[in-house]
């Protein structure tokens, strides 16, 4: 009989337990070592295959504490039974069981920043994959004329652009007007930043704070709400609270749906 050997590791040095989550098809996770984010398309003995929004596949081992789900560390495990498929996607569309991602269209949707792209992927990702629409992000609206010129939109390659805080009479408005055409549509929402398009109630706050003119808006918001000063971490917390279109303001919902319809030819030019 082995002698009793107590665990003398101090409690504060023991890793906290993390939840085990079945790797169901469609579950969107991130592999923190590489930063690869994608939806589960296959889970086999010891591995999981992810597909990102560009249709790229990566295979990762099913290791403990190996993935991030909505910003939280989890352990993916192989599903033990046939998954229960959702009847609706996060955007509210009817889910299509077994639908495969369509080969990417020539058309594209551009959004203004990485956070915008991540939010669009989370809510409309299933719809975009079925339609074969790729979302990319701009570094700034000033680059829009050259991007549109290089893209050369046409009847079979429409271009849609979503711009933050698009207000009539501003420089951004004039740039948007200059590139809009029969095959290029630029629309905007009224919010200073895509953060503000998330409903405050979904985040447990009464309202988005007002940040004095001249201050960085995101930094000012974090300071006013007592959030950590790391705006990247703050955004991951915000994104983790977004479950579906119901967590977003209608002014954003309408603009994104308009762009998807335009690029896919479902809406009028």
From TrEMBL:
Show the coiled coil region(s): none
Q: Where is this region: Disordered?
A: 1-25
Ranges of residues in domain DUF3097: 20-79, 108-264
> What protein am I looking at?
DUF3097 domain-containing protein
């Amino acid at each position: 009989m082995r002698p009793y050997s107590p665990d003398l590791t101090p409690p504060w040095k023991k890793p906290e337990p993390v939840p085990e989550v079945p790797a169901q098809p469609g579950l969107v996770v991130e592999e923190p070592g590489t930063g690869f984010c994608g939806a589960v398309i296959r889970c086999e003995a010891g591995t999981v295959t992810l597909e990102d929004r560009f249709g790229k596949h990566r295979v990762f081992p099913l290791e403990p504490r190996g993935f991030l789900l909505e910003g939280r560390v989890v352990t993916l495990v192989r599903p033990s039974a046939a998954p229960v498929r959702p009847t609706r996607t996060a955007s509210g569309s009817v889910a299509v069981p077994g639908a495969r991602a369509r080969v990417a269209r020539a058309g594209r949707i551009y959004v203004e920043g990485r956070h915008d792209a991540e939010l669009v992927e989370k809510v409309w990702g299933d719809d975009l994959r079925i339609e074969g629409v790729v979302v990319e992000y701009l570094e700034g609206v000033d680059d829009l004329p050259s991007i549109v010129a290089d893209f050369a939109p046409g009847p079979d390659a429409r271009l849609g652009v979503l711009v933050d805080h698009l207000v009539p009479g501003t420089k951004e408005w004039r740039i948007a007007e200059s590139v809009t055409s029969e095959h290029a549509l630029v629309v905007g929402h009224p919010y200073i930043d895509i953060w503000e398009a998330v409903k405050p109630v979904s985040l447990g706050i009464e309202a988005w704070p007002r940040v004095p003119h001249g201050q960085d808006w995101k930094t000012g918001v974090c300071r006013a709400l007592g959030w950590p000063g790391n705006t990247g971490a703050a955004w991951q917390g915000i994104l983790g609270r977004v479950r579906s279109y119901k967590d977003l303001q209608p002014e954003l919902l309408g603009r994104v749906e308009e762009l998807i319809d335009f690029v896919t030819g479902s809406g009028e030019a």
